[in-house]
Structure to design on (216 residues):
């Protein structure tokens, strides 16, 4: 969504509890969450080093949006009035860092090519932990075979509709047309991290991959 960001004084920001809490949760995520740490390292390796005070912004958002990636400024927006728990912050930061990674490594046309947006939303839903079993149970959604893919598809469509004025049919068509290729694009994780343990293993593998490449 469009941002109408107005600069706030240091005093106002210091007194605003949501802002302080957002900053503290963000710091904890970037320092301890294996999903975020892997993505930060991958962005750095791709030539897009992330600086906390430059590339993240805690702001108030309309509606129920949790965060977004502002491609014009290469900045991740965190909705301080809608993110209340650390686990939620972890997922939002990871989701948006995947968009930042895609923006860094490819010429993504976020505004004019809905297939580009669909692909990044599929990858974000698939790799960020949005569709883990525990998260789906918390949403009272249960399924057996193929449920992860169903969750990824549904959340990608939902994300497109939240940020673009297109019909549901247009969003569904874009997601379906690129789903297989984008669902199977697992960079930089190399696997679908279904838990923090998976993400930690992926992070170790990523570090070892870099060391191996450096010795070639």
């Amino acid at each position: 969504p469009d941002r109408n960001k107005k600069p706030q004084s240091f005093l106002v920001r210091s007194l605003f509890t949501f802002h302080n809490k957002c900053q503290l949760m963000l710091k904890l995520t970037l320092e301890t969450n294996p999903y975020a740490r892997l993505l930060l390292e991958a962005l750095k390796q791709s030539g897009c080093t992330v600086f906390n005070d430059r590339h993240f912004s805690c702001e108030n958002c309309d509606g129920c949006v949790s965060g977004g990636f502002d491609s014009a400024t290469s900045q991740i927006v965190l909705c301080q009035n809608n993110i209340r728990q650390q686990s939620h912050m972890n997922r939002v930061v990871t989701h948006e860092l995947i968009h930042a990674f895609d923006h860094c490594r490819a010429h993504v046309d976020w505004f004019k090519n809905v297939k580009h947006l669909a692909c990044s939303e599929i990858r974000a839903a698939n790799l960020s932990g949005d569709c883990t079993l525990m998260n789906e149970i918390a949403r009272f959604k249960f399924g057996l075979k193929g449920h992860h893919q169903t969750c990824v598809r549904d959340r990608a469509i939902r994300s497109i509709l939240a940020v673009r004025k297109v019909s549901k049919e247009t969003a569904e068509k874009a997601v379906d047309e690129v789903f297989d290729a984008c669902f199977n694009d697992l960079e930089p994780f190399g696997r679908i991290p279904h838990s923090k343990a998976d993400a930690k293993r992926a992070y170790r593998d990523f570090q070892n991959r870099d060391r191996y490449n450096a010795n070639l």
User: Anything to note?
Assistant: The first strand starts at residue 56 and ends at 59.
